[in-house]
Fold this protein.
Amino acid sequence: MLIKKMDAPKDMQIGAFFETKRHGSVMIVEYYNTHTVIVAFKNTGHIRSTTAAKIRSGQITDRSVPPQSSMVGRKYESLKHGLLTIKQIESENIVVLESENGEEVRMLLPAVQKLKEQIEEEYESDDELELPTSLSALTKRNKKTKDVNSLLKKMITEYGK
């Protein structure tokens, strides 16, 4: 199958740079059509094909970079070290973090993932306290409410007997 090269739109000219959400900037190397655009990642030099829509939205990922590197820049709270920011992933298991006062802290990846899970658990407990935002949410009853209501109704009907 031969792909015919088309004239590129003004923003997709060869040499144009676009920022991605996770992997730095990419440069347009070749434009064939809206579904086939060849790009090179500025940080790694990795070349791949993608769509113009993904480039414009910044949703393109560098497949040559390990998935853990997307963790760089994330912040986690530690009881021992305070607020930590991930600086880099050294190997498969070692994560280099930096504390608020500039100290370098090295942790194993599972320990960092445990910090992440603790943060997610805190968010989940906050979700339980959310107030209803719609009429249907206000009228929904959970199992506990139904049990209490049925018990109360039973008590009232049996009171006069």
Summary: Strands lie at 17-19, 25-33, 36-41, 47-50, 75-78, 82-89, 94-99, 104-108. The mean pLDDT is 78. The radius of gyration is 26 Å.
